[in-house]
Amino acid sequence: MKRFSTLYLVSSLLTLSLSHAAVPFQLTDSSPGSAEFRERFLGNYGMLSELEPSVSVQDKPLFVRVEPFLRNNPQQAIQVLESALNNESSPAFRFLLGSLYYQTSRYGQAEQNLRMAVKAFPDFRRAYRTLGLIYVQNNRYPEAITAWLKVISLGGGDAQSYGLLGYAYLTEGKYQSALSAYQMARMFKPDSVDFRRGEAQSLLETGQYRQAAALFEELIAEQPTVPDSWLLQANTFLQLERYDEAIANLEVVHSMGAGSRDSRFLLGNLYLRAENYRPALQAYQAGLAQPGELNVTSALKPLDYLIGRGLIAESRVYLQDLQQRLPATLTPEQQDQLALAEAQIERRSDDSAAAMAVLKPLVERNPLQGEALLLIAELELEAEHYEEAVFYLQRAQSLPEHKVDALVALGRLEVARDDFAAALKHLRAAQEIEARTGVARYIRSIEQAL
Predict the structure, then answer these.
(1) Which residues of 49-77 are buried (b: 16+ CB within 10 A; e: fewer)?
(2) CA–CA separation, 297 vs 23, rounded Å?
(3) Cα(29)–Cα(49) distance, rounded to whole angstroms?
């Protein structure tokens, strides 16, 4: 079981761990299906753009036939076009057919026709725009980025194109590009909730924490019942080391019945850092009680922190709660971690026999469990069973990741036996592998004593 310093506790889990979906947030006022953009799309069926393919005199009767059905009977419009189009038809009609398929949510056929349109007319801006909508709605964000960049390069830079480009960049983890796109989108539509949310998340991801916190503050003031804004602002507060404010935000989220197991564990860590031990334990227990499958590795970390702080009564309570919620099958590593935690609790409760009763079967099951070997050796040393302690330390010394700790423990053991020369030999060997300030001081104190 690791010994956790205060510094380790502060740095280890003070970042907000949210359950990320396939997208950073659900689009609202910039969604392709929003009322504003839907009305714009339905007004997209005209054929008058001088930047796009024209309709010949021979083709105009087809447009006259299909035009009455475009808004209110798209299925009839599709049937008219499908019966009339061929490989020689104007790409404007392929765009029209693709748009109708998009309107009826038949995205595969929409994409097929739109691709035919841009192949015949490579600068067909509206066709690229509808392709961009298809890709966003189907979570195909690399393709969406390409489509929206093409729209913008063809002069179609507006709120929708920059906003959905920013969303695609944000989803792909390209945060600086997302920030630039969202800032452009807000020039067209500065009050958009989606654009401000996207910009705030991009600021957070690019390390501009004060600006992100301020923008989340705007969103919270306007929509105080949206948990995600409180959660993400809590993350900015953590980065700014404003821990009390982070606690307050997380408490608000949990009072709404929102949050996650990870956010409750984080709240426990923050309370533990502030030495508010009772609310820390309560937050950890609330995390365990959250519905859903338990991530055992994550659930073990609060136990480490409680033991590291010497909160043995709290550790025992948390361990009992955890054991009631464990899945039927654990990995060997998880079994070892639980056994080590239980042994640490028993040892710090001054029950060495109970600790040994847990540790001995553990090293029989896993002879390479170095932490258990070191802890058994420590218990044997405390009982002045020196030969038994040496036996376990030599086993631990054979494990590269535990060799230094074993050598330091052997040095302490030889000091206990008044063999200072042997102690210095072990301690100097440990220092050659990994220099440690505490061990250096120990060596100096022995040399001075000699």
Answers:
(1) eeebbebeeebeebbeebeebbeeebeeb
(2) 25
(3) 27
- CA-to-CA distance for 106 and 65, rounded, in angstroms? 22
User: Are the C-beta atoms of 383 and 355 separated by less than 8 Å?
Assistant: no
pLDDT in tens, 103-144: 999 999 999 999 999 999 999 999 999 999 999 999 999 999
Cα–Cα distance for residue pair 263/405, rounded to 1 Å: 34
Q: What pTM was computed for the model?
A: 0.82
* Residue type at 426 in one-letter notation: H
- In whole angstroms, give the CA distance from residue 300 to residue 33: 43
Taking the CA atoms of 252, 243, 317 and 362 in sequence, report the sign of the dihedral they define.
positive
CA–CA dist 434, 74 (Å, integer) = 73
Angle, helix 352-365 to helix 332-348, in steps of 10 degrees? 160
Distances (CA, A) of 3 to 33, 59, 122, 150, 310: 53, 79, 63, 55, 10
Q: Check: CB of residue 228 under 8 Å from CB of residue 25.
A: yes
- Report yes or no: 366 and 372 within 8 Å, Cβ to Cβ: yes
Give 440-448's long-range contacts (Cβ < 8 A, gap of 24+). Answer: 442/411, 446/415, 446/420
Question: Which comes out higher in pLDDT, residue 199 or 69?
Answer: 199
Q: How far apart are CA 416 and CA 405, in angstroms?
A: 17
Q: Match 């958009």 to its residue by tokens.
A: 192
Q: Long-range contacts for 94-97 (Cβ within 8 Å, ≥24 apart)?
A: 94/120, 94/127, 95/52, 95/53, 95/124, 95/126, 95/127, 95/130, 96/45, 96/66
Q: Do residues 342 and 359 touch, judged by C-beta distance below 8 A? A: no
DSSP-derived 3-state class of residue 376: helix
For residues 121 and 102, the answer to whether their CB atoms sit within 8 Å is: no
**Could you tell me if 327 and 294 are in contact, meaning their C-beta atoms sit under 8 angstroms apart?**
yes
How far, in Å, CA of 1 to CA of 310, rounded? 13
Residue 165 CA to residue 292 CA, distance in Å, equals 34
Cβ atoms of 373 and 363 closer than 8 Å: yes
pLDDT tens-digit series, residues 365-423: 999 999 999 999 999 999 999 999 999 999 999 999 999 999 999 999 999 999 999 99
Q: How far apart are CA 370 and CA 360, in angstroms?
A: 12
Q: How many CB atoms lie within 10 A of CB 435?
A: 10
